[in-house]
Amino acid sequence: MLPLFGGLLLLFILAASFLTICKKNPTRKSEPREEQHGDIFTVFGFNGRELHDSIIEATEEFSSEYCIGSGGYGTVYKATLPTGQAVAVKKIHQSEDSLLLNNLKAFESEIVALLEIRHRNIVQMYGFCSHPKHSFLVYEFVERGSLRMILSNNEQAMLLDWEKRLNVVKGLANALSYMHHDHSKPIVHRDISSNNVLLDSDYETRVSDFGTARVLKPDSSNWTSLAGTYGYIAPELAYTMRIDEKCDVYSFGVVAIEVLMGKHPGDLLSYLSSSTPVPNDEQILLKDVIDHRLSPPQSRAANDVVTATKVAFACMNANPQLRPTMQHVAQSLSHEPLPFRSPFSAIKLAELLGHVVFNG
């Protein structure tokens, strides 16, 4: 593991150097973005201390005025560097004893997970700082903020039309497929929720907050403590602490349905998990569940919504062994959908709960 906590360690240079290595030896199937990630380092001549001081100055010693969010182990600030480039800075909470230790472990886990990740749908880490006074990570600034915040705002939610929403779901699927299947070692996020899915100015997905992420070890049973956000955690974790990729698959299903509904599925989860048959004339229609702030989807978008709903329901299967892999999910969402037999207005949720044939 990285030696993070012995005095002042400014390792922005390490992150910058790693980006250079990635360009020469890209991780298998990684998708580097075209933005100039090197800019924030070049202006300082790779001087980590100078970058550190600029962040302290830009946030006025982490003043609440610059706070843009708060998570389980850190508070996020927006900092504008002398170059004019905005970055997001997550400062870990200073706590006592065991809480501090947990925060430091989350800090280290996030660094370990993100140092080797290069994918267009995963937030990019620029560097980090460990110091007795404050420890923080520096990321790209993602302009529109969290998916949860956008869906909870009527004006912003209406701008997130069906095409954009389906693209958000596909982007999340691609990110998780990369983490589970295309990275050198599988990475499980463990806290996929609408709060940890960010959208940039073009409504492209960025998965964030890797504080609970785990690199799976093939020679280990991968037991761990419970982590995640209530309402998104796979049901099997209530009685077993063994993590694998299928935990993320379940959480993806919940977020995908949330994107289509415009709110957390909540009661719908109980409906889906019920073993009691529902009379045909009382079955819920898909059109009555999806977000009514938007006009009903038409033609291709309608077929895509049906496909995304079927895939999401399969991901939320109570039996983890019956859930698809994220690789199959990403492939299915990228293919041309087959027209559904019934008109969109007549499709019932029960019709979408059956067996799904995944492409690939």
What's the structural blueprint in terms of helices and strands?
Elements lengths: L8 E2 L1 H13 L14 H4 L5 H11 L8 E4 L3 E7 L5 E7 L4 H19 L9 E6 L5 E5 L6 H5 L2 H6 L2 H21 L4 E2 L8 E3 L5 E3 L6 E2 L29 H17 L5 H7 L25 H17 L10 H9 L26
Antiparallel strand pairs: 1-5, 2-3, 3-4, 4-6, 5-6, 7-10, 8-9
Helix pairs in contact: 7-8, 7-10, 7-11, 8-10
Question: Could you give a quick summary of the protein structure above?
Answer:
This protein has helices at 12-24, 39-42, 48-58, 97-115, 147-151, 154-159, 162-182, 245-261, 267-273, 299-315, 326-334, and strands at 9-10, 67-70, 74-80, 86-92, 125-130, 136-140, 187-188, 197-199, 205-207, 214-215. The chain is an alpha+beta fold and 360 residues long.
